[in-house]
TrEMBL record:
Residue ranges annotated for the NTF2-like N-terminal transpeptidase domain, each copy included: 41-153
GO annotations of cellular component type: plasma membrane
Coiled-coil region(s): none
Domain of life from the UniProt record: Bacteria
PANTHER family found in the cross-reference section: PENICILLIN-BINDING PROTEIN 4B (PTHR30627:SF24), PEPTIDOGLYCAN D,D-TRANSPEPTIDASE (PTHR30627)
Compartment(s) of residence: Membrane
GO molecular function terms noted in the UniProt entry: penicillin binding; peptidoglycan L,D-transpeptidase activity
Transmembrane regions listed in the UniProt entry: none
Cited Gene3D superfamilies: DD-peptidase/beta-lactamase superfamily (3.40.710.10), Penicillin-binding protein 2a (Domain 2) (3.90.1310.10)
Keyword Cell cycle: yes
Residue ranges of domain Penicillin-binding protein transpeptidase in the record: 377-649
Record-given protein name: Cell division protein FtsI/penicillin-binding protein 2
Length: 654
């Protein structure tokens, strides 16, 4: 009769009880050494599975099919050989049921689950045989327990099949924004170059002739060094051009000594600039991509970098095909396939649907074109919160400042502080408020742009002309948290997401009287992004904040509930004042823009505590489109951000 766990079963004579008991206690102290501390085959099996998974089989002992003893180290070595290409990634192992015991033999079902290169799973059942050997259950080692077709001299070989078809990023109508387009990869074969400086000069001249101009320009400064260090027959990649761009300069570069050309398909947006920082790029896989994703990619594959292409790479790229075979190697001859034991065909990627509007995005990109400073424009539909454009300049930008910038909003934030003042009943449209040239709070002097002064005028005039000193004087009426509360009612600082990284804002709260005065017109510690300000502006236009939505198929976990309904007695006067900014304030350039009335607020934001360093802003709406424009180091908003707004609005389809 077997003793119950945890004592080992042992054949012994009656006089050996004390010795056996002491020996049993000693065995319990060793985790996997000798007896597993169990009289049940399942417990011995669990020790084997744990040892295989953790690479600690050396402490166990086994028997062969003929009953001979086999060391754990030998079994470990055989498993590594048999598993071949999978030997460095142990599988997940689990017992799939209880042992079936017949006399001194037990069969236990086991499930083996391999994670294959690329992330696919290969799961299958097997069984492990155990035998009662000298009073202990022992695992019977045989290769087929790893996989039923494995025998001595064979191994598992993994072969990557064709990569999956990459899915498209779709616009708001369900049409591909990014789709396969022909490109020409221009390269150089070092062994055929006769004059490197002359070649670089000719290529530079040709690339500068492409229209519209390549932005950013092609930098060939490192090409001579790359040619020098490459093999004579290598293809040194210079640049990939859309086929239409290449055809413009083909006659100038095709016959240059050493130039080579390769036709390929790349996933591209309609233009080079089109939402470039937001969408990201699709490029040939690089060494660091291969290192970060072992087995998933091969040289020649394409991979998303940055933006939506990078963030949703797994969804868009799909799953490459993979095959696992049992192979046999005989001397130096090629490995012979014994049997294919697993095959997964490539699984195409799943499209990512956005709310982008191609016409609005083109208008946004065109509006920023020619702006030398880093800049951004976000536009969204007021009615449903859909983000229809997210542009970054120059040339689309390498960084998505439209979503991630963390910068002071300047006087555009008077939209927020005015909402707070109206909520508190501190002012009305025609409340007289002085606008002196300067105003001092706690020893800190505040001034207006170009030192202007208005005298005592209706508050609506202070707003339309963007009088800083009037707002600095009104700041105490907001209280310690009034500004932050008004900002939060417009979605700022909210816990919301749009898919890619985005900054929802940080509003100044509390602080010294001087800090509150600065915060009232968008200085101080308040920071925002263009996306956050576009959403806040849309909230004023609609009467309630709704989360901006970039992805139309985003999960519910990305959504935030709507904000509170804004008071009509506050939001209506605010809209009136934002209209007067355009009709008789700081943005009169927009008065004659075709279409529905334009509302807005200009903003010039100082940074680095230096009045000479200023960002330029404009926020506003027309019809169902709200938008925010930011120009880093843009100086006066009237000279930079307002003209951008005019170009954007005139470029929108009517």
């Amino acid at each position: 009769m077997r003793r119950p766990y945890p004592f080992c079963r042992s054949h012994r004579r009656p006089g050996q009880r004390t010795v056996a008991a002491l020996a049993g206690l000693g065995l319990l102290a060793g985790a996997l050494v000798g007896c597993s501390g169990s009289d049940r085959p399942e417990e011995r099996l669990d020790s084997f599975l744990t040892g295989w998974r953790d690479g600690r089989l050396a402490s166990l002992s086994f028997v062969g099919p003929a009953g001979q003893r086999i060391s754990g180290a030998e079994v470990d070595a055989q498993i590594k050989t048999l598993t071949g290409d999978l030997s460095e990634t142990p599988p997940a192992l689990s017992r799939a049921g209880d042992a079936k015991v017949t006399k001194d033999t037990a069969i236990v079902p086991v499930t083996i689950d391999w994670t294959l290169p690329g992330g696919q799973h290969w799961s299958y059942p097997t069984s492990v045989r155990l035998t009662d050997k000298d009073g202990e259950w022992q695992v019977v080692w045989e290769p087929r327990m790893v996989q039923e077709q494995l025998t001595d001299g064979t191994r598992l070989s993994v072969r990557r099949l064709a990569p999956a078809q990459r899915a498209a990023i779709l616009d708001g109508t369900g049409q591909p924004v990014v789709s396969p387009q022909p490109v020409v990869v221009i390269g150089v074969q070092p062994g055929e170059v006769t004059d490197v400086p002359a070649l670089v000069k000719e290529l530079n001249s040709a690339f500068r002739a492409v229209r519209p101009a390549l932005d950013p320009p092609i930098d060939l400064s490192d090409l001579p060094d790359r040619i020098k260090s490459a093999d004579t027959n290598a293809f040194v990649d210079v640049v990939s051009l859309r086929r239409a761009q290449y055809l413009q300069i083909k006659s100038r570069i095709y016959d240059l000594p050493g130039t080579k050309f390769r036709d390929e398909q790349r996933s591209l947006a309609p233009t080079r600039e089109f939402a470039r920082a937001l969408l990201g790029t699709v490029d040939p896989v690089q060494k660091d991509d291969l290192d970060k994703n072992p087995g998933r990619y091969a040289v020649g594959d394409l991979i998303g970098h940055g933006g939506l292409q990078g963030r949703y790479e797994r969804q868009l790229a799909g799953i490459p095909g993979v095959s696992v075979s049992v192979t046999r190697q005989s001397g130096d001859a090629p490995a012979e396939t014994v049997a294919e034991v697993f095959r997964q065909e490539p699984q195409a990627g799943t499209p990512l649907k956005t709310n982008l509007d191609v016409r609005a995005q083109n208008a946004a990109d065109a509006a920023l074109k020619g702006t030398s400073q880093r800049s951004a424009l976000v536009a969204m539909r007021i009615s449903d919160g859909a983000v229809v454009a997210a542009a970054n300049g120059p040339g689309g930008g390498g960084e998505n400042l439209a979503f991630t910038a963390q910068v002071p909003p300047g006087s555009t934030f008077k939209m927020v502080s005015t909402l707070g003042l109206l909520d508190q009943g501190a002012v009305g449209l025609d409340t007289p408020v002085a606008c002196p040239k300067t105003f001092t709070v706690d020893g800190r002097s505040f001034k207006n742009s170009d030192w202007f002064e208005l005298g005592t005028v209706p508050f609506r005039t202070d707003f339309a002309k963007s009088c800083n000193t009037a707002f600095a004087a009104l700041a105490p009426k907001l209280g310690a948290d009034g500004l932050a509360e008004a900002g939060r009612s417009l979605g700022l600082e909210g816990n919301w997401q749009v898919g890619p990284e985005a900054f929802t804002g940080k509003v100044s709260t509390g602080g010294s009287p001087a800090e509150r005065a600065a915060a009232s017109f968008g200085q101080g510690t308040t920071l925002v992004s263009p996306l956050a300000m576009a959403a806040a502006t849309a909230a004023v236009a609609k009467g309630r904040w709704h989360q901006p939505r970039l992805l139309s198929d985003a999960g519910a976990d990305l959504n935030a509930p709507p904000g509170p309904q804004l008071k009509t007695t506050s939001v209506e006067p605010l809209r009136t004042m934002m209209r007067e900014v355009v009709t008789k304030g700081t943005a009169t350039m927009l008065r004659d823009v075709p279409g529905k009335p334009v509302y807005g607020k200009t903003g010039t934001a100082e940074y680095d505590d230096n009045p000479a360093n200023t960002h330029a802003w404009f926020v506003g709406w027309q019809g169902d489109i709200a938008f925010a424009i930011f120009v880093e180091q843009g100086g006066s908003s009237g000279a930079t951000s307002v003209p951008i707004a005019e170009r954007f609005l005139r470029g929108l389809p009517r």
